[in-house]
Design goal:
Largest sheet: 12 strands, mixed
Order of helices and strands: EHEEHEHEEHEHEHEEEE
Distance between the termini: 40 Å
Number of helices: 6
Number of strands: 12
């Protein structure tokens, strides 16, 4: 059975036919979904990913596990503080985690580095590193059903040209088995599909705009978004605009809304 969960990113629900589709893939599994947000450096992958994760976690009444490959948890917390809406009870919790009860209606984003070893070990160790972080969060009282991996890049042998298809399939099957929403952030240098693109349900392709800037606040910069894939539902074709605003985050402007 498939259902759609609306997300708290203005405009994105319209592009995805109402939101993110989640599916019960086996009678013994819970609902799961696999999303890929891909783009070059500076395209806003981390902000997009953390905002998606927080929104989905609130809908599922759970916590977020945020596995950092290169980005430090302190850097994630700083980025999150700059874009988080003041009306949302949401915070980044950095390791070492201590056991505590969640605050009322609060979404907790547990951020921890993934121990993927030295160069050459990443592919073999990624799965075990994810399992370890999930166990540590659960021991601290967390209930993660949304998992973010930030980020998959060729520099860590996990990007488009180096990650084996078997690894991509294995992570997606892990999400299905655990009943989780998996959000993968992939750093790319060109737009061709990768093993992560083929394995995931939803693929969002981000890119910086060639235009000068968005019309709006001086610190907003317009970028481009394409829904490259939505396996379980409809999507709006074409290239759409989005911006990242302080104390608001991502704002998507579907191309149907353009005046010109």
């Amino acid at each position: 059975m498939t259902r759609t969960i609306p997300v708290g990113i203005d405009g994105l629900n319209l592009l995805l036919g109402g939101g993110i589709p989640v599916l019960t893939r086996h009678e013994d599994f819970g609902e799961s979904a696999t999303l890929l947000v891909r783009g070059p450096p500076g395209s806003g992958k981390t902000i997009f990913g953390v905002q998606l994760a927080g929104s989905l976690a609130r809908s599922l009444e759970c916590d977020v596990a945020y596995g950092c490959v290169e980005l430090l948890p302190s850097e994630l917390a700083a980025q999150h503080a700059g874009i988080k809406r003041e009306d949302l009870a949401e915070r980044v919790v950095m390791a070492p985690f201590t056991k505590e009860e969640p605050r009322a209606n609060e979404c907790r984003i547990f951020a921890e580095m993934l121990d993927i070893g030295s160069s050459g070990d990443e592919v073999a160790k990624l799965g075990d590193a994810i399992e370890h972080v999930l166990r540590v969060i659960e021991r601290a009282g967390g209930q993660p059903r949304v998992l973010v991996i930030d980020s998959l890049s060729d520099g860590y042998n996990l990007g488009a040209t180096k990650a084996p298809r078997e690894l991509a399939d294995a992570l997606c099957k892990m999400a299905a088995r655990k009943g989780m929403v998996l959000i993968l952030l992939e750093e790319i240098v060109e737009s061709r599909p990768s093993p992560w693109s083929f394995a995931t349900d939803v693929v969002l392709q981000l890119s910086p705009s060639e235009d000068v800037a968005a019309s709006g606040p001086s610190d907003s910069f317009e970028r481009r978004l394409t829904v490259a894939k939505n396996r379980l539902g409809p999507s709006e074709a074409g290239v759409h605009r989005y911006s990242i605003l302080p104390n608001w985050g991502v704002n998507v402007l579907p191309n149907r809304d353009r005046d010109t």
